[in-house]
Amino acid sequence: MIGMKIYEYQAKEIFKQEGIAIPRSKMVKNATDARQAAEEIGAPVAVKSQVLVGGRGKAGGIKFANNPEEAYEAAQKLLKMDIKGEMVYKLLIEEKLAIESEYYISVALDRSARQALIMASTAGGVDIEEVALRNPEQIFKVHVDPRQEFLPFLARDIARKMGVEGPLIPALGAVIFKIYRIFQKYDANLVEINPLVATSDGLVAADAKLDVDDDSLYRQKKLIHLQEGPMDEFAYVELDGDIAVIGNGAGLTLSGMDMLQIYGGKPATFLDIGGGASQQNIARALNLVLSNPQVKVVFLNVLGGITRADDVAMGIIDVMSRAERMVPLVIRLTGTNEEEGQRILKKAGVSFETSMEAAAQKAVEILDGIESKN
Asked: Would you call 9 a catalytic residue per the annotation?
């Protein structure tokens, strides 16, 4: 099941748009801005690394600060930290909530049942896997038939069965109803809040997770541009496959992903370098996907317009000459200055294709060969 993962700060913006309360917060990319964000929030804050892997808390990826200077120091420690193979380039500076109680709420696609599965628990704030193992009775589960409308009273019934009482029943039911609506609206594999925090002001999503089904990207293209990698000029999304896809333009990159899947491959990344990428940006893009340990093959799909094929070729040679991790690279290179670009690749002994179909098929064949040896 391939999914496009959304950063926490972006998922929270979506939650906010759908009527779910979130803490006051600001995304930053350096320690100075972290200090300023803490000043603006004007309260103790959580400094949270923004990564697309789980377990960041246990890995030390969340720190707390009582004042702006502590936020600055925490940001310095977190930025460029490696969390399970993913570098931290962005932080969420968020008000520290006064917690009265914590809950777990999620809606996930249960493929075996072909239905959405809602899970809810009063044991929020910890790994749901631990709760399932040690206290399974604390998790309430219910499947939702997609042929029937999920109504607010059904969400309130789930809240009652969780064991909450009084005003919390309609409040919790409203959140359950809203995250199910997000699940449907965004073609999600998973929508999760852990923890959903009860404060004196009401229920607040202290964390947010949104994983969107890749097969729905043609309907959810606006989400593609939510995802930026460490370089602002890139639209970057990490996926669950093993072939990195890089293209110059969102449409071309999506077409490359589709072509891979036709030949049985699974994309590991969506990385759009844009229409006028320089030699340096090509090198940055390649280094970015090569830093992902999940990537076994790279499919670079370039149709030169503003982007010049010779710049692409020089960027490729630059990375290959210095890369610490060697990964097979399949290149489709045509367009502006293509003869010069192809000449540069030939001189360096780097093969290329002029057909996207041939390049996608070759990438899958190379991956199959790697897997057959293991």
From this structure: no
